[in-house]
Amino acid sequence: MKDLADLAAYQQLNTQRPIKTKRNRWNVPISDFAKLTHNPIRAIVEGLNIQPHPDKPLIALSIGDPTTFGNLKPSSETIEAIRQVIDEGTGNGYAAANGHLEAREAVAQYVQHQGPVTANDVILCSGCSSALDLCISVLGGQGKNLLVPKPGFSIYRTLAEGFGIECRSYDLLPERNWEANLVQLEKLIDENTCGLVVTNPGNPCGSVFSRSHLEAIVDIAERHYLPIVADEIYEHFVFPGHEFHAVSSVSRTVPVLSCGGLTKRFLVPGWRMGWIIVHDRGNVMEEVRRGLANLSVRILGSNTIIQRALPAILQNTPPEFFEDLVATLHRHAEVAYKSIKQIRGLNPIMPGGAMYMMVGIDIEHFPAFDTDLSFVEALVHEQSVFCLPGQCFEYPNYIRLVLTVPEEMIVEAVKRLAEFCDQHYKIDDEKLLEHQNGLLAQLNKLE
Q1: Environment class of residue 54 by beta-carbon count within 10 Å: exposed (0-12), middle (13-18) or buried (19+)?
Q2: What pLDDT, in 10s, does the model give residues 292-343?
Q3: How does DSSP classify residue 279?
């Protein structure tokens, strides 16, 4: 009876309570941040009509995960380091938001090639994407703009636009092995430019910048007092004839936030272990350091099992492991490049490192296709070969190939690509007639 009396009293009170809102139905809006955030690659790929040939197994040269096909595996030392931490139970609790001290000390030692670094300069993150997120979040905001490479990794735009940050694209030049167009880059800078993203080695191009080119980029940043966010997740992924130079190693005064991690070089992208290295030139980044510390607490730090294993992973993985991995990717790149070079209508650009190759399409010689998007759709439909179209990287009439698939799959994929292009390649009739008349004129001269 008491419960019924209490319920009746509550109902009476509720009817007397004034209504403070005009809500009369469910309407659960989302934030402006969520509305503005999108993944360009996902948006483009979901819009494609991907229907593989029923009689040919799909070869996906589109996935930037080196572990997808199982041919590339982490070292036994890496696996053993994790196993030991799990057995000992030392990674089950929380860590400081910026990471365990021992783990940060190990990273600081690992990245000494970047310049003088201590554990206080290291922030551990949930993957390199999280590191980039923190860097863009701490530097930018509504009304600011960020310089990003084109073609470039789409996540920079994904991370920036949610905050109302405008992304301004500076061009990478295929005829110069994807070096930045420095004149155009500098013209993009204004009072609201909050940072410059430099990706080296590069995705999607596989570019590796020379020291002199990096110095020229840093000089621009120095003239305009512009901090650099260096996406260096592919550091040391360089092929013979090229050398990796960290952006911070060529900077005299420009502050650099270097983003890296275990993801690609150690072949463990799912472990989500990345880091930010704060290279503070002239002690101008104290506020940025505090901002990064504030942002780090949003997720209460990264995976502590991996943190505990970091010292052993970084110290015990043998150089031969990395050498073999780079040699494999270089061999795959050479196989793909040499074969695609022979295909009419395609123009591959040999990468200097990373895991990717960009291939230009002479779209005018493929009249059946209006764009790289329709080219890719037809390639999947007829040959079951899927590459990401260049528009995913704001660079139309190109495709990106991933080089981490098994070599035999690369050989088969290129064979199918050649068959596809041979079937669809056309020569403009007027140009062909002009070419034939030119040959006839040369023969007449010889007579």
Answers
A1: exposed
A2: 999 999 988 899 999 999 999 999 999 999 999 999 999 999 999 999 999 9
A3: E
CA–centroid distance for 8 within its chain: 61
- Calpha distance 325→331 (Å, rounded): 10
* pLDDT digit string, tens, across residues 72-128: 999 999 999 999 999 999 999 999 999 999 999 999 999 999 999 999 999 999 999
Nearest to 196 by CA among 232, 167, 155: 167
| CA separation, residue 59 to residues 51, 323, 355, 411, 416 (Å) | 12, 26, 16, 11, 10
Report the C-alpha gap between 65 and 68 in whole angstroms.
6
Of 391, 393, 369, the C-alpha closest to 382 is 369
What are the Cα distances from residue 284, in Å, to 21, 168, 288, 289, 385?
48, 25, 8, 10, 50
pTM, two decimals, is: 0.90
> What is the side-by-side strand order in the sheet with 356-361?
346-349, 356-361, 398-402, 388-389
**Strands ordered across the beta sheet of 228-231:** 122-125, 274-279, 256-261, 228-231, 193-199, 145-150, 166-173, 179-180
Do the bridges between strand 256-261 and strand 228-231 make them parallel or antiparallel, or are there none, so unpaired? parallel
Helix H segments across 363-428?
A: 372-383, 407-424
Q: Which amino acid is at 360?
A: G
Diameter over CA atoms, the chain: 120
User: CA–CA separation, 400 vs 359, rounded Å?
Assistant: 6
CB 352 within 8 Å of CB 208: yes
Backbone angles phi, psi at 398, to 5 degrees: -135, 160
Angle at which helix 304-316 crosses helix 76-88, to 10 degrees, equals 140
- What stretches of 225-285 adopt beta strand conformation (E)? 228-231, 256-261, 274-279
Beta-bridge partners for 147: 168, 196
Residue 357 β-bridge partners: 401
Contact 104, 274 (CB under 8 A): no
Exposure of 197 in the CB half-sphere (CA atoms within 13 A): 34
Secondary structure element (H or E) that encloses residue 361, with its range: strand 356-361
